[in-house]
Design brief:
The complex is a heterodimer of chains A (120) and B (282).
Chain A lengths: L1 E6 L17 E6 L4 E6 L10 H11 L4 E4 L4 H9 L3 E4 L5 H9 L17
Parallel strand pairs in A: 1-4, 4-5
Antiparallel strand pairs in A: 1-2, 2-3
Chain B lengths: L1 E5 L7 H12 L3 E5 L14 E15 L9 H5 L5 E2 L6 E2 L9 H5 L5 E16 L2 E8 L7 H9 L7 E4 L6 H7 L4 E6 L3 H17 L3 E8 L5 H8 L4 E6 L2 H8 L4 H4 L4 H17 L3
Parallel strand pairs in B: 1-8, 1-9, 2-7, 2-8, 9-10, 10-11
Antiparallel strand pairs in B: 3-6, 4-5, 6-7
Helix pairs in contact in B: 1-10, 4-5
């Protein structure tokens, strides 16, 4: 199973980015093979609106089943829910820390958007 | 003739100029409050509301039984207002710009359009002035469709004054487009000058004849005047920085009613406007 983690870097020691919609990158981590690839999300950094929707489509295309991030807004939440992707919020500082928390089962599944949308 | 009152900077006196000019004209005139995010023209006029009309914009509705989840709608939509994952699409009404593209590209004809309320247009009669004003609903971000709805109610043969929102972005363009003349209201301060020059660029781009009105004369410096001279922009009116004007304004009374000495200011403005308007579009 693959999971997505929001980050601003390229490896496991990189900082976790607390934003979902406007995270610069997603680390797509494969829990079985313990390998990862990094997917660019740059196009969303300057999106006027709809960044969360587009990010959700972006990781859904990667076939992930879970997302570990800082915060998730209402529109992204709806898309992720429709795509069957579970959301886990964390305040972990790095990607590896977030990954450990997830693997150890220490993160609770989010049942609602935890922040307001930035637009409307 | 359609005269738009715009500014760039907010709070320079667009509404003050709009209502006083409308009152001074003395003939039947349409006054349009195009500042639909914060309409306030009605505060200065006494009269009865004669009509309130709900304005909607078209947004998609999917008939799930017809949808096979092909995703064409989602691919087409520039604003991510419709999103699919091999199932019936999710719709985000607040993102939709009402282009109708999704309904056209859908191979199964599964998408139709329904109305989404964005605000109201209110019509009020105050002696010779017909005030038509838009009021955007709280939480709605898209002003231009409501501004266009206000303008659709214009009657051709009656002169119109359009009170535009501040700024130089889409709502202002929607308000001033297709007018015959734009009056840019500013104040003699560095802020006033900065935003005036942005507004001048905007009006020149739209190729609409325009002139400048300086409000609160005496409160700042002469840079706006130097700029207008250099750019050969006609200075149509100077309204002094007079405490009595502020007092009448704060009571919701028109300057030309409370202070008759200012009536001739607006009469002379009307004459200059008529001359400028005759020159037509540049």
């Amino acid at each position: 199973m693959k999971i997505a983690i929001t980050t601003s870097g390229n490896d496991l020691n990189a900082p976790l980015d607390t934003r979902f919609g406007r995270a610069p990158m997603f680390m797509i981590y494969d829990l079985e093979t313990k390998t990862f690839e990094v997917v660019d999300n740059e196009q969303n950094l300057n999106a006027a609106q709809g960044a969360g929707i587009q990010s959700a489509q972006n990781i859904a295309r990667q076939g992930v089943k879970a997302l570990v991030t800082g915060h998730c807004g209402p529109k992204a939440f709806r898309v992720l829910e429709a795509a069957g992707i579970k959301i886990y919020n964390t305040s972990a500082a790095t990607v590896s820390e977030a990954l450990e928390l997830y693997v150890a089962g220490n993160l609770a599944e989010s049942t609602n958007a935890d922040v307001e949308g930035h637009w409307v | 003739m359609r005269i738009a009152i715009a500014s760039g900077k907010g709070g320079t006196g667009k509404t003050t100029v709009s209502v006083n000019l409308a009152r001074t004209m003395g003939v039947p005139v349409q006054l349009l409050d195009c500042d639909v995010e914060e309409p306030n023209t009605h505060l200065f006029l006494k009269g009865d509301k004669v009509k309130e009309e709900i304005v909607t914009i078209p947004i998609p509705q999917v008939h799930e039984a017809l949808c096979d989840g092909c995703g064409e709608c989602s691919k087409f939509c520039e604003y991510h207002a419709i999103v699919t994952f091999g199932t019936a699409p999710l719709i985000f009404p607040e993102m939709c710009h009402s282009c109708g593209g999704c309904t056209r590209v859908c191979p199964k004809k599964a998408i139709t359009e329904v109305g989404r309320r964005i605000g109201v247009v209110e019509t009020m009669m105050s002696e010779s002035i017909t005030l038509i004003g838009g009021r955007l609903d709280v939480g709605v971000a898209m002003a231009p469709p409501l501004i266009r709805a206000v303008k659709e109610r214009l009657q051709k043969d009656i002169p119109a004054i359009l009170d535009a929102p501040p700024g130089t972005s889409c709502p202002v363009i929607a308000a001033i487009r297709d007018t015959d003349l734009v009056l840019l209201v500013t104040e003699p301060t560095p802020f006033g000058l900065n935003d005036l020059s942005l507004a001048v660029d905007m009006v020149r781009e739209l190729k609409i004849p325009f002139g400048v009105i300086v409000n609160r004369m005496g409160s700042g410096d002469d840079r706006v005047h130097i700029y207008c001279q250099k750019e050969a922009i006609p200075l149509l009116l100077e309204i002094p920085d007079d405490r009595k004007i502020a007092e009448s304004y704060s009571r919701g009374i028109l300057m030309v009613d409370a202070l008759p000495e200012y009536r001739e200011f607006f009469e002379s403005l009307m004459e200059k406007i008529t001359k400028l308007g005759k020159k037509g579009r540049t």
